[in-house]
Write a structure and sequence with these properties.
- The complex is a heterodimer.
- Chain A is mostly beta strands.
- Chain A has no helices and eleven strands.
- In chain A, the strands form two sheets. In chain A, strands 2, 4, 5, 6, 9, 10 and 11 form a seven-stranded mixed beta sheet that branches. Chain A has a four-stranded antiparallel beta sheet with strand order 1-3-8-7, with no helix packed on it.
- In chain A, a hairpin with a 6-residue loop joins strand 4 and strand 5.
- Chain A is globular and about 40 Å long.
- By secondary structure, chain B is mainly beta.
- In chain B, strands 2, 4, 5, 9, 10 and 11 form a six-stranded mixed beta sheet that branches. In chain B, strands 1-3-8-7-6 form a five-stranded antiparallel beta sheet, with no helix packed on it.
- In chain B, strand 7 and strand 8 form a beta hairpin.
- Classes of the chains: A mainly beta, B mainly beta.
- The interface between A and B is medium-sized, with 22 and 23 residues.
Chain lengths: 116, 108
C-alpha cells in the first residue's frame, strides 16, 4: 500500500520567505509526527498530532514554526521568515497511534529545505 | 540529559565480521523499542522491533535489558550492504526518542 508521502522533495527558498511542507500519512494512521534532521544527527522532534490536535508541540524551535492537521490526515508544516539555520531535512512519520503503542514510525522521504 | 544515548562510531569492520551496537536510555517508563536503518540522504526505515525476550531476524539479533536500561543490535556475517547508520528508538507511549545514530561501514 501507499506509504507516507511528502512534498516537495526539495525546496530552495530565500532568507525571509515563507514555506509550507506537506505530509500525507499512511491511511488509517492517527498519529503524525514532524522531525527535523541535520547532517550527522538523529531526527529532532518538532511536533506530534493525534488526530486533528497537536498533542505535543514542545519541539517547535520558535513561533516561526507552525503545523496543522485540520482533517486528521494531511498535515502542513509552515515556516515563516525563514532563516539559514532552518536548512535541514524535514521528515514526517505516521503510526497507528493510541491504538497500538508498539506500532513503529513509518517515515516519508523527507523534504530537503535549503534557505539561501 | 538525553533520553537516548548512542555511540556515533564510526564502526569500520571487514566483511563477515560480527558487530554490536548499544544504546542506553534514561526513561524507565519507555514502553517499546526499535532499531532503524538510515542510508545516506534517505529516510530512516524500520529494521526491527525489540522485544523483552530478545528477537532475531536472520543475521540481526536485538536485545532489551530493562534492568540496565539498554538495547543492543548484533549483526553477524556483515555484508557490504549493511553499511548505513543505525538508529535506536524508544517510545514512551506517545513520544518517540531517537539516538544520534551509529555509523557502520563494512569493508571488502
Amino acid at each position: 500500500g501507499a506509504g507516507v508521502s511528502q512534498t516537495p522533495s526539495n525546496k530552495v527558498t530565500e532568507k525571509g520567505k515563507y514555506v509550507e511542507l506537506r505530509c500525507d500519512p499512511i491511511s488509517g494512521h492517527t498519529a503524525l509526527y514532524w522531525y527535523r534532521q541535520s547532517l550527522g544527527q538523529g531526527p529532532e522532534f518538532l511536533i506530534y498530532f493525534q488526530g486533528t490536535g497537536a498533542a505535543d508541540d514542545s519541539g517547535l524551535p520558535n513561533d516561526r514554526f507552525f503545523a496543522v492537521r485540520p482533517e486528521g490526515s494531511v498535515s502542513t508544516l509552515k515556516i515563516q521568515r525563514t532563516e539559514r539555520g532552518d536548512s535541514a531535512v524535514y521528515l514526517c512519520a505516521s503510526s497507528l497511534g493510541d491504538r497500538s503503542y508498539n506500532s513503529p514510525l513509518h517515515f516519508g522521504n523527507g523534504t530537503r529545505l535549503t534557505v539561501t | 540529559r538525553k533520553e537516548v544515548e548512542q555511540d556515533p562510531g564510526p564502526f569500520n569492520v571487514p566483511e563477515g565480521a560480527t558487530v554490536a551496537f548499544n544504546c542506553t536510555y534514561s526513561n524507565s517508563a519507555s514502553q517499546s523499542f526499535f532499531w532503524y536503518r538510515q542510508d545516506c540522504r534517505k529516510e530512516p526505515k524500520l529494521l526491527m522491533s525489540v522485544y523483552s525476550s530478545g528477537n532475531e531476524d536472520g543475521r540481526f539479533t536485538a536485545q532489551l535489558n530493562r534492568a540496565s536500561q539498554y538495547i543492543s543490535l548484533l549483526i553477524r556475517d556483515s555484508k557490504l550492504s549493511d553499511s548505513a547508520t543505525y538508529l535506536c528508538v524508544l517510545n514512551t507511549g506517545n513520544q518517540f526518542y531517537f539516538g544520534t545514530g551509529t555509523s557502520l561501514t563494512v569493508i571488502p
